[in-house]
Design goal:
Elements (H helix, E strand, L loop, with lengths): L5 E6 L32 E5 L8 H4 L2 E3 L19 E5 L3 E5 L5 E5 L5 E5 L30 E6 L1
Parallel strand pairs: 1-3, 2-4
Antiparallel strand pairs: 1-8, 2-7, 5-6, 5-8
């Protein structure tokens, strides 16, 4: 069956949350903050593959959610960034926003890529907010939430 038009739901990955934790050592009475930053969320990338001729792969799976970034950890450890989600499309595919009708990308050449949804930025841990005067901070930042998009592929 030849499928040349399809609607898909796409969501990029959210950023990981920062952590609020404190160092605890035997001979250090006030260790200070040690919460790490959260990782960045995954982008949603459309890439042209010359081996494909139709949008048949999108007929049965229409919801695509990229992975979120890992949360920050103690000892100032940064959370892992999520790998981008790559969706293969045939050459000549036009990607439009279904609500506005705006053309987001026109993919024609082999291995041409377009980042359609940018992943969220990771939150900051409490080690980022420490200074010489303010050493014991309990605050942290959560990762950025990203919006979802309904696309029309032609």
């Amino acid at each position: 069956m030849f499928v040349d038009q399809v609607k898909v739901y796409v969501k990029a990955g959210d950023g990981g949350n920062g952590l609020a934790s404190f160092r605890r050592e035997k001979y250090v009475p006030f260790g200070g903050p040690s919460g790490g930053d959260g990782g960045n969320g995954a982008d949603v990338v459309f890439e042209v593959d010359e081996g494909l001729s139709t949008l048949m792969d999108f007929r049965y799976q229409r919801h695509f959610k990229a992975k979120r970034g890992e949360n920050g950890m103690s000892k100032g450890q940064h959370g892992k960034n999520a790998a981008p989600m790559v969706l293969k499309v045939p050459p000549g595919t036009t990607i439009k926003d279904d609500e506005t009708g705006e053309v987001l990308a026109d993919l024609t050449e082999h291995e041409q890529q377009a980042i359609i949804c940018k992943g969220g930025r990771g939150g900051r841990g409490n080690i980022r907010f420490a200074s010489a005067k303010i050493r014991h901070l309990k605050s942290r930042k959560t990762g950025n939430q990203v919006s979802n998009v309904i696309l029309s592929l032609n």
